[in-house]
Amino acid sequence: MASSKEYLDFVLDQLKPLQAINYRQMMGEYILYYKEKIIGGIYDDRLLVKNIEAARNFCASSRLELPYDGAKPMILVENVDDSDFLCRLFEEMFKNLPAPKAKSRVNFSVEREKG
Length: 115
Fold this sequence. Notes:
Blueprint: H1 5-14, E1 21-26, E2 29-34, E3 37-43, E4 46-49, H2 53-58, E5 64-65, E6 74-76, H3 83-96
Antiparallel strand pairs: 1-2, 2-3, 3-4, 4-6, 5-6
């Protein structure tokens, strides 16, 4: 089941105070970025965040769920109605996530043989 745009819009509205939230649609789901770092995503109308120590400490009573078959378990964020909580969670996670990897530039030019 794909996630609804309405649920994404609701979560984005809850995170509006952060201002640096972006998303990318991927196969009917949505990957969430905060200041260019992947924080988590919307999967089957559930907010799931990366399973890192900062998120585990912040969401101590939450459970792990799979976003899709074959994926790593992620933390289910159950209290999406609390904007302040979500913003604090994303800020704490941001501090503990590595910087995005630099994208390598690949040169696809091919020299042609003369002859």
